[in-house]
Design brief:
By secondary structure, the protein is α/β, with parallel strands linked by helices. The protein is built from 16 helices and 13 strands.
Length: 488
């Protein structure tokens, strides 16, 4: 049986379109939620089986009904009132859903508290639709693990034709769900490229904010220094709306304290169709040779991006230099901080949970190796013997060098030297230097390669430059309209 959905309910809906229809009474939040559940059933769990969804919130329809009644009785909370949103599976919710980061060991873990960002979304009137699949432990399991795979959820697939196309990670489920119209919005998390990579490979917009703009509390951690949540959406406008809802100072997350007075609850004020006019943008063209020969890069598409920027009035400086870009970065921060942060998280799990440390997690996975170790767990094993006190000199020196070379001798140096508003990177090659700096980036669709694989670019800048980046990205989006839905 096919449910006769109203004509309005179709793919590629935006928040503004939905709110207008809700206000007129053309649809309800309940009907909208039902539409996305139908698409998940038909295309994610059946048909092409994209496998981007790990759990559905069994209360989603009840929440939508309550928000419909509130709309008529008390009015609208804001632009997210009644809007379905998916969360990456490492974001805790205090409801009937589990939070597992894709692991089997945590498949029965129910948090007793919402993550800070989830509280903000609920207060904004969002319908938490479910949890999205992800690369297990945010790619902290194995060097051989394929992006978008988790032992609990299996492999997320790219919706753009060829199932073997790279899907990006680790927020792959969040990106695919937005790209395939299984939700209006998704929330991903990033340590290094985990929002930017799947956004680009699935033709959606992904914003990796300044570390501290969005609270880290209630997110299963990878690092203390680099972790952040961020929006994933089909348009810059929708991503900007979601960013405003996510941003906020959390008294229990020290990383957010520096954001006081530097964030806004409404990033849509930066949406300027002429935002590229007189903007100074530096183009980074000095990536390693192997990148330019890889499937990640398309020279003609990247040159077209640069031509568009110029045509829209931007002052473009090509072949800029970033002094530290090609340095051999230490991975000491991610090595030691995963050990410390994950051990700390696991130690606080309820007594009935099967694991409470990385060592116990490794042993648990071995005990069900046929289910849990398709790709092994050498990343976890490499960290097991490390100290979790974060006093090791290798770690401390790596942390200091990361900050110095990514900020003073990296992004900030280059912005000042060339007097730039932002830096343009092909694909997501700037993710590491921006991640180590804790600086924001926004990934944008920039066309499709001959293989059918989406191509994209990243705009990046200094701390708390989200408004500038949204302004540039929106003007570029409106000039090109590269985003197109997958043919499912």
């Amino acid at each position: 049986m096919t449910i006769p959905f109203k004509a309005f309910l179709k793919e590629e809906l935006t928040i503004d379109e939905i709110q207008s229809a809700l206000e007129k009474g053309d649809i309800t939040a309940k009907e909208l939620t039902m539409y996305y559940l139908y698409r998940i059933a038909k295309f994610d769990q059946d048909g092409p089986q994209l496998n981007s969804i790990l759990e559905i919130n069994p209360d989603a329809l009840f929440i939508a009904e309550a928000l419909d009644y509130e709309r008529t009785s008390n009015g609208v909370r804001g632009p997210l009132h009644g809007i379905p949103i998916l969360l990456k599976d490492n974001i805790e919710t205090n409801d009937k859903m589990h939070t597992s980061a894709g692991t089997i060991a945590l498949e029965n873990y129910n948090s007793k508290e919402d993550a800070f960002l989830v509280k903000k979304l609920r207060e904004a009137g969002a319908v938490i639709l479910g949890k999205a699949n992800m690369t297990e432990l945010a790619n902290g399991m194995s060097y051989e693990m394929w992006a978008g795979y988790s032992s609990r959820g299996g492999q997320v697939l790219n919706p753009y034709g060829d199932a073997n196309l790279y899907v990006g990670g680790s927020s792959s489920g969040s990106a695919v769900a937005a790209a395939a119209n299984f939700t209006v919005l998704s929330v991903g998390t990033e340590t290094d490229a985990s929002i930017l990579s799947p956004a680009i490979t699935n033709s959606v917009v992904g914003i990796k904010p300044t570390v501290g703009l969005v609270s880290r509390r209630g997110i299963i951690p990878f690092t203390y220094s680099q972790d952040t949540a961020g929006p994933m959406a089909r348009t810059v406008t929708d991503a900007a709306i979601l960013l405003g809802a996510l941003a906020g100072v959390d008294e229990l997350d020290p990383a957010t304290h520096k954001s006081a007075g530097r964030l806004t609850s409404d990033y849509t004020e930066y949406l300027d169709r002429n935002g590229l006019r007189d903007a100074k943008i530096g183009v980074y063209n000095q990536a390693p040779d192997e990148f330019y020969a890889s499937a990640e890069y398309d020279e003609s598409l990247f040159k077209e991006v640069v031509r568009t920027l110029k045509a829209e009035g931007a002052i473009v400086i090509e072949d800029i230099d970033i002094p530290s870009f090609k340095r051999e970065w230490s991975w000491g921060v991610s090595l030691y901080e995963l050990k410390a942060s994950l051990d700390h998280f696991l130690s606080k799990l309820p007594p009935h949970m099967p694991v409470h440390s990385i060592s116990e997690l490794i042993a648990f996975n071995k005990s069900i190796g046929d289910r849990a170790l398709k790709y092994g767990q050498n990343k976890l094993e490499n960290r097991e013997s490390l100290s979790n006190t974060l006093r090791d000199p290798d770690y401390l020196n790596a942390k200091l060098e990361d900050i110095y070379f990514s900020q003073e001798q990296g992004i900030d140096f280059t912005l000042k030297k060339y007097d730039l508003d932002a830096i343009l990177f092909p694909a997501y090659i700037g993710s590491t230097i921006c991640a180590k700096a804790g600086y924001p980036s926004i990934a944008m669709p920039a066309g499709f390669m001959k293989s059918g694989r989406p191509f994209g670019v990243t705009f990046a800048s200094t701390a708390y430059s989200e408004g500038i980046l949204i302004k540039l990205a929106y003007a570029y989006e409106q000039a090109t309209k590269h985003r197109r839905k997958p043919n499912l």
